[in-house]
Amino acid sequence: MALSNPQVLAMIYAGANVTLAPLKFTVLQRESQVKAARQSKVHVTYIRAKALDHQERISLARQAFGRVHFDLS
Predict the structure, then answer these.
(1) Residue 1 clears pLDDT 80, i.e. is over it
(2) Other beta carbons within 10 Å of 14
(3) Coil/strand/helix, residue 20
(4) How would you label 41-66 residue by residue, b for 16+ Cβ within 10 Å and e otherwise?
(5) What is the reported pLDDT for 40?
(6) What span, in angstroms and rounded, lies between the C-alpha atoms of 67 and 18?
């Protein structure tokens, strides 16, 4: 089941730790998810994160230090 970005944000703001496939979302959507995780103090894990550019991974990690994780498998 594919979730939309508003559904993901609602889960994050409700306090859920989420695991997402990053390519299903745009760069701006991923940034909004990371900001929501920082504000809600939950964790966001992106699976298959090798598909993301290294600079984008660094940028996302810096926006919410300790709240964003990348599974590079």
Answers:
(1) no
(2) 9
(3) strand
(4) ebbbbbeebeebeeeebebbeeebee
(5) 97
(6) 11
